[in-house]
Write a structure and sequence with these properties.
Layout (H helix, E strand, L loop, with lengths): L8 H4 L1 H11 L4 H5 L5 E4 L14 E15 L6 E8 L4 E8 L4 H6 L5 E11 L2 E5 L2 E5 L5 H10 L1 E4 L8 H14 L8 H6 L5 H9 L4 H32 L12 H8 L6 H14 L6 E6 L5 H14 L3 E5 L3 H15 L16 E5 L5 H13 L2 E6 L13 E7 L6 H8 L8 E5 L6 H6 L5 E5 L9 E7 L4 H16 L3 E5 L40 H10 L7 E4 L5 H12 L5 E4 L12 E6 L7 H8 L9 E7 L6 H11 L3 H11 L2 H5 L19 H17 L7 H12 L2 H7 L1
Parallel strand pairs: 4-6, 9-14, 9-15, 10-12, 10-13, 11-12, 13-14, 16-21, 17-19, 17-20, 18-19, 20-21
Antiparallel strand pairs: 1-8, 2-3, 2-5, 3-4, 5-6, 5-7
Length: 739
């Protein structure tokens, strides 16, 4: 008997196992069992030999009339031919072999009745089936009944490769199923509660189904396996995280947080107050907070993070804010120091008595500034330290790290998160993770399943509405002309505009290509068949800025921004734009997150079809942040009615980021959401789909939570414990860590 962990070569032999490993990376019995059929075919109704047509797949019932065998002319081997008849017509069955085919001659003797399936072709004026499948009928067998069964049998079609065909995979699967002995990892009580069949039945049912009901029953059980195992791992992580000790940081009356709240020029929304209260309560506990803060674009997540950081500083600790890009880190630094005012100016003239300091640490800092930032972090002078991956470097030390805030979680792996946590010394710092855009519930339960969640749904008061329109530049060029006129009009009113391009372009010190600092570029959704411009390169920042300065926007103050500019130049461009010294900023998606310029009212996105729904929604959120209404123009050459245009129309039709997050999940490859750093790898989730199986995932999460709370080490479920271990040893561990 074979178990799922056995090497395939020991069960099916080296010859069959080698192509499975080389072409499909299937090494163990379990790998092959989880290589599920793509679809199923049936042989179909019996076909009259007189009505055969070239190219069609047929099943015929016929009697062998005569057989011949002859050697091949130009190479070793033989050709065996059997001529069959159904009384109305004749058909030749042709078999090629490397040697003699005596065994086939003994099977297919004249007078034998059988069912034969294959694709019809014509050779030298005769209709034939080359290498047909067949099943011989006993003389006393009910031929009509046998034919009906044979025609209705479901044939699995597997994802295959050049080196190995679907039917070869099916043959190996049959060999394994005949000797497979599996223990079911799903506890019996859970199977009974949810009406699930056993694992052995599910594997046989998906690979060798009797009917469609068998397929559906098996798929449902195997989806449960995928969801349940993942949720058990996440439940164990949540339980382990709750056991980590942390220094309690309760709110201090009369401290920095109270002074900050008094400075705020607006009232917190109800959602902000509730999320803030949840976080404040958890920071006061003696075990580490692990919380995800997600919400609508512009819903005020950063204010919540600042309030949490100040509570920790009031409690004698420090807070680190990790941002994915230098532009965003610098933006956070400017924004937070401005919000704090004298509260962030400890040791400076005019600084408040209880003030702290805010330090910025990025890879491009000069030596003197870097030394100063390192010293402020290590000595505890800086209560808040903001930075990029530079914060993870070994020489960065903290006096008492009490809170880690991670912005744009999908761009960081758990190992990076842990590297920053490790700087806290004994115990663990509290953790607050923020996402840039809303995420569907099922993504929250899987990708972020080891975190508790707070959600902000309402926008702060004073935010202006944003109108969004699709600009079909190829169909209506005058619409594009009107776009640039509108930009000029806004600039004439003293307002500012963004123009976003998908590529940097060619120029001094810049290589053609996407923006390397923009990790969000991996989020781009492109429909290969519908790329704008008939294969032309995407519009580039450097090219377009030059064209606009000499043409449609001549006389306006135009600046460029992208990830390859020197850091001090990037900073000066952003400062100039924020100060109103630049009318139009032509940029890549480095402005996608966190950039806050209330005077900016227009967002023009060139080749908008080359961006994903979430990216478009995030970019749109850069305007309408002040008194004036925002306008977002999605410029595209994608054809009307195609998927790309439908996606843009959907973005234009709603400002609801939660609706758009579901659309994003529908239209992108699911692996992009689940995979390592959104690279598209799906690892162990073969059948589960995040939108269609939302209820199933929710049920699996509840069952996993109850089970792990009662038996954290799964001591009473050894088979489940083994399945979890195997899952983590496979690439699932990478999926969990990187997603």
């Amino acid at each position: 008997m074979a178990i799922l962990e056995d090497p395939l070569r020991l069960v099916i032999g080296d010859k069959a196992a080698k192509p499975l490993e080389k072409a499909l990376e299937l090494r163990a019995v379990g790998d092959l069992m989880r290589h599920y059929p793509r679809r199923y075919e049936t042989r179909g109704e019996l076909t009259d030999l007189a009505s055969l047509t070239d190219g069609e797949y047929v099943t015929v019932q016929a009697e062998v009339a005569k057989v011949t065998s002859r050697p091949m002319r130009n190479r070793r081997g033989s050709i065996f031919e059997a001529t069959v008849t159904d009384g109305h017509g004749m058909l030749v069955l042709t078999f090629f072999g490397r040697g003699r085919q005596d065994w086939r001659e003994r099977q297919l003797t004249p007078g034998v009745l059988g069912l034969f399936s294959g694709q019809v072709s014509t050779f030298r004026g005769k209709r034939q089936l080359a290498h047909p499948e067949y099943e011989l009928l006993d003389a006393g067998e009910d031929a009509a009944h046998a034919a009906a069964e044979y025609a209705a049998e479901m044939i699995p079609v597997y994802p295959a490769a050049k080196e190995i065909t679907s039917w070869q995979i099916a043959r190996s699967v049959r060999v394994v199923l005949d000797v497979l002995d599996v223990e079911d990892p799903m506890p019996r009580a859970i199977r009974d509660r949810h009406g699930l069949c056993g694992l052995a039945d599910a594997l046989r049912g998906i690979h060798r189904p009797v009917d469609w009901a068998d397929v559906q029953r098996s798929r449902h059980r195997l989806k449960w396996d995928e969801a349940f195992l993942l949720q058990v791992v996440l439940a164990q992580r949540r339980l382990a995280a709750a056991a980590y000790s942390a220094t309690p940081r309760p709110r201090t009356p009369g401290g920095l947080l109270d002074a900050y709240d008094a400075r705020l020029p607006f009232e917190l929304t109800v959602g902000q107050q509730l999320a803030g209260a949840q976080i404040a309560d958890e920071l006061a506990l003696d075990h580490a907070m692990h919380r995800l803060l997600q919400g609508e674009v512009g819903s005020g997540k950063t204010v919540i993070a600042v309030r949490a950081m100040l509570q920790v500083v009031d409690g004698g600790g420090q807070a680190a804010l990790l941002a994915p890009t230098e532009v965003l880190a610098q933006q956070h630094y400017r924004s937070i120091t401005e919000q704090l005012g004298p509260l962030g100016q400890a040791g400076e003239l005019g600084g408040a008595e209880t003030a702290t300091r805010v330090a910025l640490l990025t890879g491009s800092l000069g030596a003197a500034a870097r030394r100063r930032a390192l010293l402020e972090a290590a000595s505890g002078t800086a209560g808040i330290v903001i930075g990029t991956h530079a914060l993870l470097e070994e020489q960065v030390q903290f006096a008492d790290l009490g809170l880690v805030v991670i912005d744009e979680q999908h761009r960081f792996g758990v190992e990076q998160r842990d590297a920053l946590r490790a700087k806290a010394g004994e115990g663990r710092p509290h953790l607050l993770v923020m996402t840039a855009t809303p995420i569907p519930r099922t993504v929250a339960m899987t990708v972020f399943g080891d975190l508790e969640m707070s959600t902000l749904t309402e926008l702060p008061a004073g935010r202006s509405p944003i109108a969004t329109h699709v600009v079909p530049a190829a169909e209506k060029p005058h619409y594009l002309e009107r776009t640039w006129k509108r930009v000029r009009e806004e600039a004439g009113r003293g307002r500012q505009c963004y123009v976003v391009c998908p590529r940097i372009g060619d120029g001094p010190g810049s290589v053609s290509g996407p923006d390397t600092e923009d990790a969000g570029q991996a989020d781009t959704a492109q429909d290969d068949a519908e790329q704008a411009g008939g294969g032309r390169p995407p519009i580039a920042v450097l090219d377009l800025a030059d064209d606009l300065e000499r043409g449609a926007l001549a006389g306006l103050r135009v600046a460029v921004l992208h990830g390859r500019l020197p850091p001090d130049e990037k900073d000066s461009v952003m400062l100039a734009f924020a100060a109103g010294s630049v009318d139009v900023l032509v940029t890549t998606t480095v402005v996608e997150v966190g950039v806050d310029v209330p005077n900016a009212t227009v967002m023009v996105i060139m080749d908008a079809d080359r961006f994903g729904v979430s990216q478009l929604h995030q970019l749109r959120g850069r305007v309408g942040r002040g008194r004036h209404e925002g306008l977002c123009l999605l410029v595209t050459e994608a054809e009307a009615g195609g998927k790309s245009r439908q996606r843009l129309d959907a973005v234009a039709a709603t400002l609801d980021g939660f609706k758009l997050s579901r659309l994003d999940l529908e239209q992108r490859r699911e692996g992009d959401v689940l995979g390592a750093a959104q690279a598209g790898r799906r690892s162990s989730l073969k059948l589960l789909t995040l939108l269609q199986d939302e209820d199933l995932i929710g049920d699996a999460r509840k069952e996993a939570q109850h089970l792990v709370e009662a038996d954290p080490a799964l001591a009473g479920q050894p088979t489940l414990a083994t399945a979890v271990r195997v899952l983590l040893e496979r690439e699932q561990a990478e999926y969990l860590e990187k997603a």
